[in-house]
Design brief:
374 residues; six-stranded parallel β-sheet; 12 strands; alpha/beta
Length: 374
């Protein structure tokens, strides 16, 4: 879950006491074999939602007649717009008091919390009044007190497999491990028309660089802009590709600064795509290079080759989940330092990046890109 430092402190210092207190009112129940109404909760992180799709799919297949609802952020719900496993979507937004009563009125049989550490999602799970509440038992987070069924969150195990333990614990057979995107024709048409407007030759191979990585205002997972400039120039020189730079609306400046310094024209689409247009763009590309973030997982879900750059994050746990990927890890003894996503082990450098991200050499990234482009 992405959140500000104030929200993290509020979640910890108010959320933990509430979880411990409300534990006194929790009662154990037997898991019903055929739930009629199931709610999934994933409040913020796009990457987590993408990685949870095999689990959602397995539960849908196990209970084809159940009504499945997703409570999530706007970006997550946009990603799930055409998902065939979800019947209803509820937008997570403040103030919470407008959300709690409608959730209780739904009378869900199961509520499945897909978050790993926030107490807020556990409190929302409890507030639904559902007889069966399922979530992760994460070390040191004290959120599991509010669940009737828990699944251990294992550090170092890929998050796809951590999520699948939920399906396994509910006796739901897992038939496929692949991720999915559901690009509609409008998004694909937007990509074609936008590339024409940007005067990209129709048969030019597209390489998408996504320079930002992760939380807004937290650039410690980011590879430096100067490295992206050098990478872009080398890929154009060696493979005659068209470079496209992507990012969120508040990441436009980074992409524009990179494009301004490249020797060959790079197309900046940062701030211009929604999540499904971004997925369609990734699908049209021959390669995506990114740090660890939601768009990296989105690119992997399309099946397009991905080179993922990992410094603070554990690639074994958060690496791109696809056969067509290459993971490049930082070379420092303290890397990786992140398990849940916020517990950085070092101070940021003056430019905001982590020291470990500077150990990833441009030449190494070019070599791995060449494996997919040659």
């Amino acid at each position: 879950m992405q959140s500000s430092r104030f929200q993290q402190h509020l979640d910890r210092y108010v959320g933990i006491p509430l979880c411990v207190l409300l534990r006194l009112f929790c009662r154990g129940v037997r898991v019903p074999h055929s739930p009629q109404k199931i709610l999934f909760i994933q409040l913020s992180a796009l990457g987590d939602t993408i990685l949870a799709v095999p689990t959602i799919r397995a539960i849908r297949h196990a209970f084809p007649d159940a009504e499945i609802t997703m409570l999530a952020s706007r970006t997550n719900l946009n990603y799930l717009t055409n998902c065939p496993y979800i019947n209803k979507r509820i937008l997570f937004e403040m103030p919470l008091h407008r959300l709690l009563l409608p959730l209780r009125r739904e009378r869900f049989d199961w509520v499945i919390d897909l978050e790993h550490w926030p107490r807020l999602s556990a409190l929302l799970t409890y507030a639904t009044g559902a007889p069966v509440r399922i979530g992760f038992r994460t070390k040191g987070q004290y959120r599991h007190f509010l669940f009737t069924e828990t699944v251990p969150h294992i550090q170092g195990r890929h998050e796809v497999r951590n999520f699948l333990e939920i399906a396994t614990g509910l006796a739901c057979p897992v038939q496929a491990l692949d991720l999915e995107v559901w690009c509609d024709s409008a998004s694909e048409r937007w990509v074609r028309e936008t590339l024409i407007q940007e005067q990209v030759p129709p048969h030019a191979p597209l390489v998408v660089l996504h320079p930002e990585a992760g939380r807004r205002g937290e650039p410690r997972r980011r590879w430096s802009p100067e490295n992206y400039v050098a990478l872009a120039d080398a890929l154009v020189r060696q493979f005659a590709v068209q470079i496209v730079l992507t990012g969120a609306p508040d990441e436009v400046n980074t992409s524009e600064a990179i494009a301004a310094r490249t020797q060959h024209r790079a197309v900046v689409l940062a701030g211009r795509t929604d999540v499904n247009q971004l997925a369609a763009l990734f699908s049209a590309a021959v390669l995506v290079v990114s740090g660890n973030c939601g768009p990296m997982h989105l690119a992997a879900a399309t099946g397009t080759p991905v080179v993922g750059l990992h410094g603070p994050t554990n690639a074994a746990q958060w690496g791109p989940w696809s056969r067509n990927v290459c993971v490049i890890r930082a070379e420092m003894p303290c890397s990786p330092c992140l398990n849940l996503g916020f517990e950085y082990g070092c101070q940021a450098l003056p430019d905001g990046t982590s020291p470990c991200m500077w150990t990833i050499q441009v030449e190494h990234v070019i070599q791995e890109c060449a494996r997919f482009l040659e």
